[in-house]
Amino acid sequence: MSKQWNLDEIEYLEENIGFYKVSTIAEKMGRTYESVRIKMNRLGIANTKQQTGLVTIGELANILKVERNTVKWWTQKHGLPYRKKITKKSKIFYFIDPTKFWTWAEKNKSKIQFLNIEPQSLPPEPDWVAEERRNEREKKVRKKRVYQQWTTKEDQTLLELRNEGLTYAEIGEIMDRSVNSIVRRYKRII
Length: 190
Hints:
Elements: H1 7-16, H2 22-29, H3 33-43, E1 55-56, H4 57-64, H5 68-77, E2 83-87, E3 91-96, H6 98-107, H7 127-139, H8 152-163, H9 168-175, H10 179-189
Antiparallel strand pairs: 1-3, 2-3
Helix pairs in contact: 2-3, 4-5, 9-10
């Protein structure tokens, strides 16, 4: 016969779902994985990802209208705080707390095109975001760099300038490209 769920157990389940694996919750509660999964379905909390109140890297990328890898890069190289969570049995998600994102974004305004973000699409949206949006609209600010394809003529110019002994920085100035772009392209074509 199945063991009845009491209010404390239901509350514990609702508070911890999405932050711990279902198997871990089941073990701590002295219940089987299957009984916890069934109770989650009955309570309407089976989508463990939604229960956290956080957004995934992919969801944040969609809101910001940038590539998922851009947000991942921010977490790895620019200090955007995130939490790695395992939901259900073994699915791994990288979650970002919207409040912590906005704190990070305020310090890294140059990386984000605020005009692309729909108002209140990532609550709680601070007041300064509306001001940034307005500034970008009025000043027609574009922070996103558009990738420029390399032409064969540019490849030849790059090789010639490098053979003349110019540095990557000098070549970047002449060709109106970043130093990293020059270095990467040079390594590809030699």
